[in-house]
Design goal:
The protein has 300 residues and is mostly beta strands. The protein has two domains: 150 residues, no CATH class; 139 residues, no CATH class. The two termini are 28 Å apart. The protein is elongated and about 60 Å long. A hairpin with a 3-residue loop joins strand 6 and strand 7. The protein contains four helices and 17 strands. The strands form four sheets. The chain has a five-stranded antiparallel beta sheet. Strands 2-6-7-9 form a four-stranded mixed beta sheet.
Length: 300
């Protein structure tokens, strides 16, 4: 199992990898699983070429979850996996994405993007471990070369709705927590207006993790929470995003996009429970309605 720590990656980036840019063939990839929490606490990139290696890594990754999700199936006669881990991050809001892969005769070049929350982002204080695992055709790489692009997310700008219909007022939001796995199994959308309700909900959200994550701090004198749960879904590849929020005729209107995997998508067989929790100014927490746009992803 080929592995490179991202300490070595950092040295490689600073040294421009001895000034050598290696050519290679672009590899196609299909996501197997990704998330913000795992049992892998060190940053690194590795290739997984056998079922035994995959079972061992999956057991370590899912060790905080009870019960652990099912192991995604991989045909290791034709395919292998590339896993990228960011390691422990101090809060929510951090991310990792495998952007591109190139294979040479004896090396594999991996391009990653790190996202980091900006100063205006409202974050959960729990430690996260962003990761992504993709399936690729088998390669004979003796060396892994990694480059990392860093991007800072400005939540103040990204949450602004630029154009809204006449007679509506835009509502800004900031993410408090999100993920693909949680202990809340019902599809439901709700407002949380006080600390008691928030603590009860968070205990249910984190009930599948050992130890449970710390409760994110919220000032309910000024803020309210919008909690969005997709409920149990039969495989990976499901997710949701907030398209926009607005006040319309004195009501909070939340417009959502629900994504599901298409027939060509390679997804983990684990049951997932995508969720998103965001904070808004409390003055907007009035008589909410939710509009859902359903999108099927074409993984081709």
């Amino acid at each position: 199992m080929k592995y490179i720590s991202l300490f070595a990656v950092a040295l490689c980036i600073m040294a421009a990898c001895n000034g050598t840019k290696r050519a290679g063939k672009a590899l196609s990839m299909a996501e197997v699983v990704s998330g913000a929490s795992s049992g892998i606490h060190a940053a690194g990139v590795q290739l997984i070429g056998t079922a035994a290696e995959w079972e061992k890594l999956w057991a370590e990754m899912t060790s905080p979850q009870s019960p652990p999700p099912a192991l995604p199936e991989v045909n290791f006669e034709e395919k292998m996996l590339l896993a990228a881990f960011r390691g422990d991050c101090a809060s929510s809001g951090y991310g990792l994405e495998i952007r591109a892969l190139q294979a040479g005769k004896k090396h594999l070049t991996v391009s990653l993007r790190y996202t980091t929350p900006g100063p205006q982002c409202m974050l959960s204080s729990m430690i996260t471990q962003p990761y992504e695992i993709v399936e690729i055709d088998r390669v004979e790489a003796q060396e892994i070369q990694v480059s990392v692009e860093n991007k800072v997310i400005d939540c103040g700008e990204e949450a602004v709705i630029e154009e809204l219909e006449s007679g509506t007022e835009p509502v800004r939001w900031k993410e408090v927590a999100s993920g693909a796995y949680c202990g809340y199994h019902e599809e439901k959308r709700m407002l949380i207006l006080d600390q008691i309700a928030w603590q009860a909900l968070w205990e249910q959200v984190g009930s599948n993790q050992i130890p449970p994550p710390a409760l994110p701090e919220v000032n309910f004198d000024e803020k309210a929470l919008v909690a969005l749960f997709m409920g149990d879904r039969g495989s990976g590849g499901y997710g949701q995003s907030i398209k926009k929020m607005e006040m319309e005729n004195g009501r909070l209107v939340v417009r959502l996009i629900h994504g599901s995997p298409g027939k060509n998508c390679i997804s983990t067989m684990a049951i997932v429970q995508p969720y998103t929790i965001v904070a808004i100014d409390k003055k907007y927490a009035k008589d909410p309605s939710f509009a859902i746009e359903k999108v099927v992803r074409d993984c081709n």
